[in-house]
Amino acid sequence: MTGIFAEIVLPLAGAVLIGVLIGWLLWRWRRQVVTPTAWKQLNASTQSAHAELASVRAARAELLAERTLLDDRMADLSTQLDDARYEIRRLRSHDGDDGVVPPT
Length: 104
Hints:
Distance between the termini: 85 Å
Number of helices: 2
Shape: elongated
Number of strands: 0
Helix content: over 70%
Radius of gyration: 37 Å
């Protein structure tokens, strides 16, 4: 049991410790310090972006509502077009009764 511990667990623990140490050193080396002025600018930029996002969402909602109205209008016009086409076929027939069934 001691042999397994010495051959497996200790090298594994050593590798973990070395990895943590290298990771910590790299993190400290690449870390960026943010000044209070830069922090305030970042916060202002974030607030501006949130305000712009809210206005874009409002505009999107308005456009979706307008699209719904236009879809309804298009459906009405499509129905009117079908009715007009049926009426044209009916009027072009010889006796006015060509057996054409109106669209539903």
